[in-house]
Design goal:
By secondary structure, the chain is mainly α. The protein has 2 domains: about 475 residues, Amino acid/polyamine transporter I (Up-down Bundle), CATH 1.20.1740.10; about 140 residues, 3-Layer(aba) Sandwich (Rossmann fold), CATH 3.40.50.620. Helix content is about 65%, strand content about 5%. It has a 5-stranded parallel beta sheet with strand order 3-2-1-4-5, with helices on both faces. Strand 1, helix 21 and strand 2 form a beta-alpha-beta unit. The longest helix is centred in the middle third of the chain and has 38 residues. The protein is elongated, with a radius of gyration of 32 Å.
Length: about 650
């Protein structure tokens, strides 16, 4: 029989096949590094946009406009160097974390083991938020790269972004190994295109090719220069904007268990490759953007998506005055195509880590238990589905505009960075061991650096970070409430072991609407379990307009002795033509008048052979069962009556 689910997701995997789902280093680089590597497509862009804003507002002393423009945009180089320095510190720190936590050392685990419950929940909430933003930002940026190369797609960014997110979700539901193999092509294709583009740009630079920086002049003429303390503020804003290049750096330490053995060693090697590639591409794009005079400004209209900085830079390097022709045009399209591909694939990092983190928190009782359940393909399907839903909601709400989404970015991940590094300092102090002072110093340096950057982000991106901080606080409160619920349930279940298992008195009621084979079977079953209690049949009657019993009830009473002798029949009047409410009222009346009685309600229930036949019947039985779940000392039993029974 055709099974669409199997076609879409592949065959089911048994638990003992989990070792086959582990991935090699080249695949791991694509799975866990695509987020960090793809950030070069918008990190320099955000730095330039921040510097453009400084010129537009014209803070500080008056300087010649053209000189001011070149001076301000020249700040992008020291900003990029500072970010590269921070990247090296973080990479060194996280390699230590990988070795200390070979089972996976994300910020949540490290904070929980070394700093306590509250820091762990803050780290968990901030990373979950960051993963959702990663999907929304990365895929939106990828679609923006396509619309830059093919303007005819402009105006359809939201729909295209949503389709891309759903595609990634489906691939991840198939399993991390399968999705990683497919997504390795865009990752390595993007890296190859970027290195070739940087090589061509460097050659033209060394060859003395000059480009009139028309973008710089255009932006510079919009405002005055900046100087003094205002320059420090501009640097801080640009630095916090460029720190989007560091998102995803922690992903490898979170996903160590997904690597082939020796997992920690392989993860450490992959981290080194990721950092080397990220450093080269980010610094190269920033240097070439300065040389070729390419800048970027945020759109004032949230519904308008502009041409990306990387697209502008590629046109400047490959063409003349921004015009690309011939073979160079084909390479330009390849650059844009692979940029789109890796930005879409970058969401795969979040799909690898969000479900895993949610599963860990669910096992600890801070998220619903369903998040810890693995699906048919040994992936945490519920986490994948929730991540997809939240990311799609963000894309829809913010019109897939990265100019609006990016200010929300980075704050969450730097909260996680800081707590992880601080936790590792405590880890080395507690564990001691060989060279522990040096290890503690490295992680301490990482903690200090990240907390300084976090403060910078909170100050300079206060509008976007305020939303993130409030969301993290609400999530932490939710985690506590979920945890308290599970503790309370556990205490109640433990105490219930000493309670009386079998009640002293049972009252059985069979809910009926007429007489048929299913009702007779239900009554017979009721007599069986009511050997030491009472049993009666209950029906709901709609009186006529004179207040008398309906004709249907009169017919039922006359037929009753023939088919159901020995079981009393009682009718509940329902003047407002309701079925569920009179039954609930009767149950509550018995609870008040006979609190020691346990009520057992038996419901004869039709079972159809197909879903569309089920739609043709009302769902009264389901409504009754759902409504009675909250009543204590009430047991509901369904006695199925198969309309089309399967014969042996």
């Amino acid at each position: 029989m055709f099974n669409f689910r199997r076609l879409l997701l592949g065959r089911r995997l048994a638990t003992d096949e989990s070792h086959h789902a582990r991935i090699s280093n080249p695949i791991a680089l694509a799975v866990f590094s695509s987020d960090a590597l793809s950030s070069v497509a918008y990190a320099t862009q955000e730095i330039m946009a921040s510097l453009s804003m400084a010129l537009q507002h014209g803070a500080g002393a008056a300087v010649a406009v053209g000189v001011a423009g070149h001076a301000i945009f020249g700040l992008s180089i020291p900003v990029a160097l500072g970010i590269v320095g921070l990247l090296i510190i973080l990479a060194t720190s996280y390699r230590q974390t990988i070795k200390a936590y070979p089972g996976g050392g994300g910020a949540y685990i490290v904070a929980k083991d070394n700093l306590g419950e509250m820091p762990a929940l803050i780290a968990g909430a901030s990373l979950l938020v960051d993963y959702i933003l990663t999907v929304a930002v990365s895929v939106s940026s990828g679609i923006a790269a396509i619309t830059a190369a093919f303007p005819s797609f402009s105006g359809h960014n939201v729909a295209l972004t949503l389709l891309a997110i759903v595609f990634i979700a489906i691939m991840n539901l198939r399993g991390i190994k399968e999705s990683g193999g497919l997504f390795a092509i865009p990752t390595y294709g993007f890296v190859a295109c970027m290195l070739m583009l940087l090589g061509i740009g460097a050659f033209r630079w060394v060859a003395g090719h000059q480009v009139t920086p028309y973008e710089v002049q255009a932006v510079a003429h919009q405002g005055a220069g900046v100087a003094g303390l205002a320059l420090v503020w501009v640097f801080m804003r640009a630095f916090s904007a460029g720190c989007t290049a560091l998102t995803g750096v922690e992903a490898i330490s979170n996903g160590v268990p997904a690597f082939k053995d020796p997992a920690a060693e392989n993860a450490s090697k992959t981290m080194a490759w990721m950092v080397g590639l990220l450093l080269t591409m980010f610094l190269g794009i920033t240097l070439l953007a300065n040389h070729f005079g390419v800048v970027y400004q945020h759109s004032t209209d949230q519904t308008v998506v502009q041409e990306t900085l990387l697209s502008q830079l590629a046109r400047q390097i490959l063409g003349t005055s921004g015009q690309v022709t011939g073979l160079a045009k084909a390479f330009y399209y390849a650059v844009q195509g692979f940029t789109f591909a890796i930005l879409v694939v970058a969401a795969n990092t979040a799909y690898a880590d969000f479900p895993r983190l949610a599963a860990l928190m669910a096992k600890d009782g801070y998220l619903p238990r369903q998040f810890s359940s693995q699906g048919d393909r040994l992936v945490f399907s519920n986490g994948i589905l929730i991540l997809t839903t939240m990311a799609c909601a963000l894309v829809w709400g913010f019109h897939a505009n990265t100019d609006v989404l990016l200010p929300l970015y980075a704050a969450g991940v730097f909260i996680g960075f800081t707590l992880s590094q601080a936790g590792m300092v405590r880890h080395w102090i507690n564990k001691k061991g060989i060279h522990w002072q040096g290890k503690a110093f490295v992680n301490g340096l990482g903690a200090v650096a990240t907390v300084i950057v976090l403060i910078d982000i909170l100050i300079t991106k206060y509008r976007g970070t305020t939303i993130v901080v409030i969301l993290v606080a609400l999530m932490v409160a939710l985690f506590y409430n979920i945890h308290r619920h599970y503790i309370r349930v556990k205490a109640i279940l433990a105490a219930s072991r000493t309670e009386q298992v079998y009640p002293h008195k049972i009252r059985v009621m069979v809910l009926i609407s007429g007489i048929h084979h299913g009702v007779v079977r239900a009554l017979s079953f009721g007599k069986t379990i009511a050997a030491h209690g009472d049993v009666e049949a209950i029906t709901v009657d709609f009186p006529d307009d004179a207040g008398r019993e309906s004709a249907a009830l009169e017919k039922l009473r006359s037929d009753w002795p023939t088919y159901c002798e020995g079981v009393p029949l009682r009718a509940l009047r329902s003047p407002y033509r309701k079925i569920v409410e009179p039954i609930l009222d009767e149950v509550d009346r018995i609870r008040r008048s006979e609190p020691e009685v346990v009520q057992v309600l038996i419901i004869p229930e039709f079972v159809t052979s197909s879903w569309w036949e089920n739609v043709l019947h009302n769902q009264t039985a389901l409504r009754i069962k759902t409504s009675l779940l909250s009543r204590p000392k009430v047991i509901v039993i369904s006695v199925p009556y198969h309309l089309n029974p399967i014969r042996d």
